[in-house]
Amino acid sequence: MRLHGGRIRQPIGLFIGSGIFAEPFSEGKYEYEYYSGYFLKGVAYIGGKEYFVITPAYVSEKFQGKFPGSAIIILSCYSM
Question: Using an 8 Å Cβ cutoff, are 58 and 33 in contact?
């Protein structure tokens, strides 16, 4: 999985730390996660493309399970 990290700016202008830019934004996809605040719509700093951004709360509360034989690596200037 290829991910990009970045700072999250809320609509009111506050930064809330970091997030994972996971995949291009698509209206109607991940509705529960989006409307519950776990996923946000982020805009790439260069190019202006919209992405789903996975928030730190989603990682803390929803990432569960075992991944035998796997290495999970996230590298970013703003990794969580």
Answer: yes
Domain positions in the chain are: 4-62
Which tokens belong to 3? Answer: 């991910």
Of 36, 50, 40, 35, the closest CA to residue 14 belongs to: 40
pLDDT tens per residue, range 10-59: 666 666 667 777 889 999 999 999 999 889 888 777 788 888 888 888 88
Half-sphere exposure in the Cβ direction for 15 (13 Å, CA):
6
Q: Please, is 51 exposed, middle or buried when counting C-beta atoms within 10 Å of its C-beta (0-12, 13-18, 19+)?
A: buried
Element (H, E) at 42: strand 39-43
